[in-house]
Design brief:
The protein contains six helices and two strands, in the order ααααββαα. It has 152 residues and is mostly helical.
């Protein structure tokens, strides 16, 4: 930074005085674009704060800061919400064992009207694999007492 203008100093001063301001807010005060403010701050060694685009950073129930933006609830409120969620029971499509899940999980499988198999539900991966084998021929085609290979 050989030539430091008054704007450079003003940008650095605004960043130190108001660390929560966005680059656009600093640029509006100084009369520079957001990108130019970012470049000046990077050259001066200041870290820029990336707040993310459209991310919900606070829990919608308690207002605490969330560690991620994947869920709308924090890790403290999420288990309580899942306990109160309405549940429904269906039989497994292969072994007919009853499966209890949240209603929202069952509705997710019925949202796609193009899927002809939206009413299928499996209790685990084993039942799903066996169902695929019996319906699409991916499993054993011979009975269990018959050897799969012929003796040579």
């Amino acid at each position: 930074m050989d030539t430091i203008t008054e704007r450079h100093l003003t940008v650095n001063d605004l960043r130190t005085l108001h660390p929560d301001w966005t680059l656009r807010q600093i640029g509006t005060v100084v009369g520079l674009s957001r990108e130019r403010v970012r470049q000046l701050l990077k050259a001066a060694g200041h870290a820029t704060i990336h707040k993310g685009w459209g991310r919900h950073r606070h829990c919608s129930t308690c207002g605490r800061l969330k560690p991620d933006s994947k869920h709308r609830l924090c890790f403290i409120c999420l288990p309580h919400y899942l306990e109160r969620a309405p549940r429904a029971t269906r039989p497994c499509s292969y072994c007919k064992k009853p499966i209890t899940r949240r209603v929202s999980q069952w509705k997710g499988s019925e949202r796609n009207p193009l899927s002809s198999r939206s009413n299928l539900a499996f209790c685990n991966k084993v039942c799903h694999g066996r169902w695929l084998g019996t319906h699409y021929g991916g499993g054993r085609s011979k009975p269990d007492n018959t050897p799969l290979t012929s003796p040579m």
